[in-house]
């Protein structure tokens, strides 16, 4: 069989196959637009011989004789049959099949609820990326995609309709081909928690992505759907001759500096000279060269993406198979991401009543992360802070292990040389992830069907952090190794009955079922020091050995039901109910009930709308509850799964084994809950405009928080359900068909989101300080910035100052360190401790969105997308080190701008050598607004006459640029890498990615 397949491939690729008796070619077009249909099936009736149309809807097929009948089909279109006769050119126009279109949209356990807005992202492979979550940015309203690092494969922060929890997970629920994927488990298996769990999936295997947001769409997922649901459907086979698709993509990433501009040698010399009161900085031992440490830290990162897939089948069995290889070097030296992947999906129609689906996937990932150890052992931190006078090389041109006085420049102390470390230390993650899914569908009786989906998924992760004894970080330990192995296994079984019937103009769909999921994890780790040279194995550890490990498990059991009703496909109503049980809670609080009620009215189908130009005008409304049982943020893995139970751990006491309590249990713990309500409208006008408008209000209650307890318990706090917050907002998306001509089309898509978050209840109304700069306070958005307000330099003496912000302090009674700021008339102080902390905004934008344009001219297509964010602040914690007043490390060029030099100066920055200016304050709080050209792609499809000569189904070339430019006032690289909390600390910047590729179908 293998030899036959290889011979067939060679024959097609090199056009060595013999010509059949008759060759038929043509184009399959869509009835409404006249555009070619990509992927339409053309099959010789009664056989499995066929083909699939190319990018322009064209096809070429050899038929045995003129008696052959060709069957033309496409999902959602009416099938057509044509007798070949003596025709050699057959062009077909397929019209919409209204009955099919009502049935093809499957959302979760059942068909789409017409009372619910479901945004489908049909193309996720239009950008070259290691994970599908990158491709979601700008594609749907209400979906915020952010990251705190540009590390290849790193985890993105996905927020759907705002932040709905204070301490529990805010990630959405992912469902792949009907199977729930709990990414929280996968992140916990990877103790570094830097890799995006969705990076296991090859984006080229994905058919489409659906985003579920409101109660009607998410309530069926109950306790896990509080943060929204993302449904991922992978590609399936199609009836017809086996079609192969091969793509090769190569690219390069370069750093996007944005407004980040560090001092060069001359600027740094001027800075140090000014610090010394005019005495020129001339370090002894300097070799006369200038060293750009940012340039040494960054590199052009190569991206390679190779994909091969095959699909085909007949009336009984269809299949899709793929193998892929993706490799992306980071723009920071020492970082990369590599993935090998495969997938196989098989659909079989056993008989008229029974069908089954099998799916399997496997991926192997290797990820190297840039070091984040000692300041100067991290390429990023050294790039920021190392001065341009210091050489990484000795007199012989070899890398120095440690940069100290022997480097030729004194005054910097002893620091690491990250270039040397890159050759000796590493922080590496290896992951093997896979799954097997089987689904059985049985049509029991007229309208009654049964579906059973069962899956097993596993993930093995090895994290290894090795520090060589010859490096700066390893000098104190003579080398160290931290090795962790984690294994995660999830079993899921979903079983549903579905009954569908119609009587007159009434249509009814009833769903009932149950679902069970089990998860088991094991983690083992070893740490030790004093490794002999050249030994990187745990058994080589000689000193300070440590072993850790634990086993975890949790179980879910659910019952679910839904009733959907519509009258004449104009009036819609649905009710759903789900009851979830989770082992994460005590038996008396183990079960939660979640429900939704929704309705819709398709006004455009009313008789009185017949004379209007509305293609669609559907009003929708829904209300319901969902929950959140992922308790992960701030808790160790055991506390997450056993938060209601007292926990203890083992150690030693006086040389003897001993146990001690680590957690005070709380059997009253229960689900976090979210009450969702929304009202919206879907609209379409004259075939030119289509879109949707939604207003929503979501209340999160029983939020998990740490609450104080009596000291007699031996603990300070206990986890309890006490908090509440609200998210409310508006979403608008619309698409315009700007031009529709035979050889030119142009459409524009816009999506806008406005969300407001407010914490409405905390334990005893008490504020919660989060880190050094954030606060959780009633009446404010969660994690608002809470800082002293910077007032600039005191004009009299040049010292840093802050506004007092105490109403009781006036110019008449102010203290000796205070003065009246001449710019604002407010009282300021040069004593940091006298400045009151105050609410200074939050990290969440007032408005965010995207604008996408798609143009096609003959064989060319052009697509470009702008994303933007208006409002929201970023705390640039890096600035405390690189925009300071008395540090001798390298500085941002703006560190010398608007600086006080003499009495009377009205300046933003204090006099050099000021020791207090780098304290946390609004000095480092910046505007997070931006406009970014996120993606631009130019493609070219070879014309049919060339494709036919080459004997292939289609050839497409493309070039692409990602993150081409960003317009922002932010002083760092780009504001996009501020993550979900709006804090940047020595960020790993985004890269500009330039890619080209070719896809061949044969």
From TrEMBL:
Q: Which UniProt keywords apply?
A: Cell outer membrane, Membrane, Signal, TonB box, Transmembrane, Transmembrane beta strand, Transport
Question: Could you tell me which InterPro entries the record lists for this protein?
Answer: Beta-barrel_TonB, Beta-barrel_TonB_sf, CarboxyPept-like_regulatory, Plug_dom, Plug_dom_sf, TonB-dep_OMP_SusC/RagA, TonB-dep_OMP_SusC/RagA_CS, TonB-dep_rcpt-like
Domain TonB-dependent receptor-like beta-barrel span(s) in chain numbering: 412-964
SUPFAM superfamilies, per this entry? Carboxypeptidase regulatory domain-like, Porins
Q: Main subcellular localization, coarse class?
A: membrane
The topology of this chain with respect to the membrane is:
Multi-pass membrane protein
Instruction: Give the subcellular location.
Output: Cell outer membrane
PROSITE patterns this protein is in?
TONB_DEPENDENT_REC_3
* Highest taxon above the source species: Bacteria
Residues of the TonB-dependent receptor plug domain: 129-229
- The signal peptide annotation in the UniProt record is 1-20
Report the NCBIfam families cross-referenced here: OMP_RagA_SusC, SusC_RagA_signa
The similarity comment for this entry is: Belongs to the TonB-dependent receptor family.
What is the protein name given in its UniProt record? SusC/RagA family TonB-linked outer membrane protein
According to its UniProt entry, this protein's organism is Persicobacter diffluens
């Amino acid at each position: 069989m293998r030899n036959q397949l290889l011979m067939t491939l060679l024959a097609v690729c090199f056009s060595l196959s013999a010509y059949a008796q008759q060759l038929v070619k043509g184009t399959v077009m869509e009835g409404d637009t006249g555009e070619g249909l990509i992927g339409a099936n053309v099959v010789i009736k009664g056989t499995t011989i066929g083909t699939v149309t190319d990018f322009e809807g064209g096809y070429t097929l050899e038929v045995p004789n003129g008696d052959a009948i060709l069957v033309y089909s496409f999902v959602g279109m009416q099938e057509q049959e044509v007798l070949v006769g003596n025709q050699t050119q057959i062009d077909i126009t397929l019209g919409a099949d209204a009955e099919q279109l009502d049935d093809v949209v499957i959302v979760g356990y059942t068909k789409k609820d017409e009372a619910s807005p479901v945004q489908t992202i049909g193309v996720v492979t239009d950008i070259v990326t290691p994970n599908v979550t990158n491709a979601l940015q700008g594609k749907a309203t209400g979906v915020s995609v952010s990251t705190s690092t540009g590390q290849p494969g790193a985890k993105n922060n996905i927020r759907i309709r705002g932040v709905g929890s204070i301490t529990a997970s805010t990630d959405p629920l992912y469902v792949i081909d009907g199977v729930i994927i709990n990414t929280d488990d996968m992140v916990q298996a990877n103790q570094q928690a830097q890799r995006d769990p969705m990076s296991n999936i090859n984006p080229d295997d994905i058919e489409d992505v659906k985003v579920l947001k409101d109660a009607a769409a998410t309530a069926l997922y109950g306790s896990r759907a509080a943060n929204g649901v993302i449904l991922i459907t992978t590609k399936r086979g199609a009836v017809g001759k086996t079609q192969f698709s091969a793509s090769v993509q190569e690219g390069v990433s370069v750093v996007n500096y944005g407004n980040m501009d560090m001092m060069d040698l001359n600027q740094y010399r001027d800075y140090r000279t000014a610090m010394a009161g005019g005495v020129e900085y001339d370090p002894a031992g300097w070799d006369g060269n200038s060293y750009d440490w940012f340039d040494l830290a960054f590199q052009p990162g190569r991206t390679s993406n190779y994909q091969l897939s095959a699909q085909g089948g007949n009336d009984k069995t269809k299949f899709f198979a793929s193998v892929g290889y993706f490799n992306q070097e980071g723009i920071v030296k020492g970082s990369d991401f590599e993935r090998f992947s495969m997938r196989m999906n098989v659909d079989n129609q056993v008989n008229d009543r029974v069908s089954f689906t099998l799916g399997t996937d496997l991926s192997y990932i290797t990820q190297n992360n840039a070091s984040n150890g000692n300041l100067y052992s991290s390429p990023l931190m050294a790039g920021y802070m190392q001065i341009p006078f210091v050489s990484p090389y000795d007199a012989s041109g070899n890398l120095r292990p440690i940069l100290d006085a022997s480097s030729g420049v004194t005054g910097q102390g002893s620091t690491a040389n990250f270039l040397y470390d890159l050759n000796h230390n590493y922080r590496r993650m290896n992951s093997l992830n896979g799954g097997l899914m089987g689904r059985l569908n049985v049509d029991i009786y007229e309208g009654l069907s049964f579906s059973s989906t069962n899956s097993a998924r596993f993930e093995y992760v090895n994290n290894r952090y090795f520090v060589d004894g010859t490096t700066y970080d390893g000098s104190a330990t003579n080398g160290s190794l931290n090795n962790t192995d984690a294994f995660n296994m999830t079993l899921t079984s979903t079983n549903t009955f579905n009954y569908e019937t119609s009587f007159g103009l009434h249509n009814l769909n009833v769903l009932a079922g149950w679902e069970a999921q089990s998860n088991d994890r094991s983690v083992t780790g070893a740490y030790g020091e004093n490794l002999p040279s050249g030994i990187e194995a745990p058994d080589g550890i000689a000193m300070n050995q440590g072993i850790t490990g634990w086993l975890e498990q949790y179980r879910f059991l659910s019952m679910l039901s839904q009733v959907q009703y519509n009258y004449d496909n104009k009036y819609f109503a649905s009710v759903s109910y789900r009851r979830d049980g989770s082992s994460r809670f005590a038996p008396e609080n183990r079960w939660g009930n979640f429900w939704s009620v929704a309705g819709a009215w398709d006004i455009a189908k009313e008789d009185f709308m017949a004379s209007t130009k509305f293609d669609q005008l559907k009003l929708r409304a829904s209300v319901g509850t969902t929950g959140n049982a992922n308790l992960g943020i701030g808790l160790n893995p055991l506390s997450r799964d056993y938060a209601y139970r007292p926990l203890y751990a083992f150690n030693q006491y006086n040389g003897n084994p001993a146990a001690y309590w680590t957690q005070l249990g709380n059997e009253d713990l229960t689900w976090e809950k979210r009450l969702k309500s929304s009202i919206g409208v879907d609209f379409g006008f004259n075939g030119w405009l289509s879109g949707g408008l939604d207003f929503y209000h979501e209340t999160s209650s029983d939020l998990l928080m740490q609450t104080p307890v009596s000291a007699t318990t031996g603990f300070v706090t206990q986890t309890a359900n006490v908090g509440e917050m609200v998210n409310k907002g508006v979403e608008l998306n619309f698409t315009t068909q700007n031009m529709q001509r035979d050889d030119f089309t142009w459409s524009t898509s816009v999506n806008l989101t406005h969300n407001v978050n407010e914490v409405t209840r905390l334990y005893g109304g008490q504020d919660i300080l989060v880190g050094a700069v954030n606060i959780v306070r009633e009446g404010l958005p969660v994690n608002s910035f809470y800082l002293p307000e910077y007032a600039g330099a005191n004009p009299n003496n040049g010292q840093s100052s802050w506004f007092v912000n105490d109403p009781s302090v006036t110019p008449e009674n102010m203290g000796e360190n205070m003065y009246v700021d001449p710019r604002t008339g407010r009282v300021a102080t040069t004593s940091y401790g006298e400045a009151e902390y105050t609410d200074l905004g939050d990290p969440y934008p007032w408005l965010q969105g995207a604008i996408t344009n798609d143009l096609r001219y003959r064989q060319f297509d052009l697509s470009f997308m702008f994303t933007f964010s208006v409002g929201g602040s970023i705390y640039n914690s890096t600035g405390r080190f690189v925009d300071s007043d008395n540090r001798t490390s390298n500085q941002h060029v703006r560190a010398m701008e608007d600086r006080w030099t003499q009495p009377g100066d009205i300046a933003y920055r204090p006099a050099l050598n000021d020791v207090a200016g780098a304290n946390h304050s609004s000095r480092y709080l910046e505007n997070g607004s931006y406009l970014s050209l996120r993606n631009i792609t130019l493609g070219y499809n070879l014309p049919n006459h060339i494709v036919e000569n080459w004997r292939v189904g289609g050839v497409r070339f493309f070039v692409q640029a990602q993150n081409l430019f960003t317009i922002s006032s932010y002083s760092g690289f780009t504001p996009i890498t501020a993550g979900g909390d709006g804090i940047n600390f020595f960020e790993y910047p985004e890269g500009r990615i330039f890619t080209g590729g070719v896809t061949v179908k044969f």
